[in-house]
Amino acid sequence: MKHYLILLILIFVPCYIWAQSAGTLEIKVYSEGQPVEFASIGIKGTNRGGTTNTKGILRLTDLSYGSYDILVSIMGFKSEKVTVVHQASLSALTVDLEESATALDEVVVSGTMTEISKMESAVSIDVYSPKFFKANPTPSVFESMQNINGVRPQINCNVCNTGDIHINGLEGPYTMVLIDGMPLVSGLSSVYGLTGIPQSLIERVEIVKGPASTLYGSEAVGGLINLITKTPENTPTVSTDAFATSWGEVNTDIGLKLNTGNKSHTLVGINYFYYQNPIDNNGDNFTDLTLQNRISLFNKWTMKRKNNRQLSLAGRYVYEDRWGGEMQWTPEDRGDDTVYGESIYTKRWETFGTYQLPVEEIINFQFSANGHKQDSYYGDLSFQAQQNIGFGQLTWHRPVGRHEFLLGAAYRYTYYNDNTVATTSPSITHLPGAYLQDDFRIDNQNKILLGVRYDYNSLHGGIWSPRINYKWNTTNKKNILRLSLGNGYRVANVFTEDHAALTGARDVVFEEELKPEESWNVNLNFVKKIITNHQNYIGIDASVFYTYFDNRIVPDYESDPNEIRYANLDGSAVSKGVSLNLDLSWHSGLSALVGTSIIDVSIEEDGVKRRQLLTEKVSGVWNIGYTFGASLISIDYTGNLYGPMRLPLLGPEDDRPAYSPWYSIQNIQITKKFINGLEIYGGIKNLLNFTPPANSIARAHDPFDENVNDPIDNPNNLTFDPSYVYAPNQGIRGFAGVRYALFK
């Protein structure tokens, strides 16, 4: 009997001990407070693992107690490695994933005006998430574009620091900026409206390089930037993001989500930017950075109706007071000819929305309206301008077999008035248009997109804009080839688009009545995706492009140092080049997005070929990040590199360099996250402390040209001019900030 008792003990005690040494490990995967389904989870050194369910949860039962390295990965997010000590019958682990700098297969709308997977789109679209922009925090959308390959924010004035956005070397007026697919940033607001859009409102940014006039009409000649705003239901209940720099800049974003009823949500956002610290490090007696006091108020409201039809309505108001000029300038000097200053008051309102009609067909009505008022002085030159734009668009989307038809009708009303010699009476433009698109899937590997648009401009007549896009992919969709051919057109308004026409002492001369510009573009894009056995990701995105212009409008700074002459080019203009992006992501926590572009933008007239002003031939960008595992500490290193640009000289006697030097703006940031939604971050901007030379402003000591005819004071026969600018004057500076997001 004793022997049997010993035998039972030898059998059951180890079993009991074994049973007590294993339990269940519950792993929850979230991102921005929302569960992540189908995330891949593995335990290093074992064959245990699986994928999360629709609630973002994976339960591993009968897992022996001990310490484990948990690997969590899913396409579109940075992989995470977390160490957990499993020592209870039910242990719990929560993993918070960060979005990749670029989304691998986002749903996009810009290329076809319908929601479609990025990989399925026949139009090449670059998509950037808020994670990308957080690596180098800036107070506005304009500045945030500095690390995107082929996209460059160009400062156009050394005094008031206004600018526009270049795509593939083409100037800002050729870039169409949309908010939720509607043309809210154009004309007068293309100069000052970009700095008034806070990053906190942006859900993602979609960029199409090349003409998109078939769907979006005039201005989308060089490409478009579509800013998709956040939807209230997918935002934190409370969110804040505030940072300050050692130069005295302060930027604050506050967001608040409210549930206003059954299936109804609203998002209220406030952005405030403040900088009132005149600095003159280059010693030219002009402010290196424009002083600004800007507030932006935003409200977006969404409501689900019957049959899941959605109504969204948004509004924004911006007020900005900015000035730059001589260091001794005060508001009392505004408009005088004693102390030079450029003072701009901007008031802007916007409203826009989408209504899905309550019918069986997919019919959407989009609408927007905005008003922009500018009260400004450039020295003693007054520029008073008012612009009002109304826009309405009706689209019908109908799948038929392998065809996706989109039929649309649009109408745009523009009122513009200013006090310049070019506007003797208010300009009113009516622009009705219609377009048809067929997105045809030939088979699982081939797709073709055909589109045509007709617009009737009340001032310039009818304009056709056709396009064709072809896409081929391998069966696993890891290799994609896209070919596009499209036509674009643009109607120019010099005083709203070219800031040089207002600033400085030059006279503006129109040699003829300007005709609409027209362009033809061809683009070849290749994408390859590689996922290694260790769940590392390598993305290759390469493009070759060519654009030919008719009636190109070119400002002539060189024929006469006292004038800027505008005329349609009697010749041809060409933009061509190649670009390459590498998107790398390792499960160890290291990620990198590196890009380079080689661009040749040239103008040929009377047999003479010359490079376009302020256009680089070579550029590079990078965004490199690393997360230190469970510590939730990350480091981001961002930057850009630009080759020489041809600069606008004031005639043959101007002794300043005709080309800019190679230059680079680099930044570094360290971020610490906490599990309660708090983030603190800080770093250094412009690590190399690069700034243009002190003589970038010609004759800064005589801004009113009082001694311009004095051969001793002015031996080179120059005039005061701040348009010789290719990079910001703001040098190295530190910054620190805090973010907080509360989900309920």
TrEMBL record:
One of its GO terms (cellular component) is cell outer membrane. This is Outer membrane receptor for ferrienterochelin and colicins. It is found in: Cell outer membrane. Residues 268-687 form the TonB-dependent receptor-like beta-barrel domain. It is a multi-pass membrane protein. Pfam families: CarbopepD_reg_2, Plug, TonB_dep_Rec_b-barrel. Keywords: Cell outer membrane, Membrane, Receptor, TonB box, Transmembrane, Transmembrane beta strand, Transport. Residues 118-223 form the TonB-dependent receptor plug domain. One of its GO terms (biological process) is siderophore transmembrane transport. Its main location: membrane. One of its GO terms (molecular function) is siderophore uptake transmembrane transporter activity. SUPFAM superfamilies: Carboxypeptidase regulatory domain-like (SSF49464), Porins (SSF56935). Belongs to the TonB-dependent receptor family.
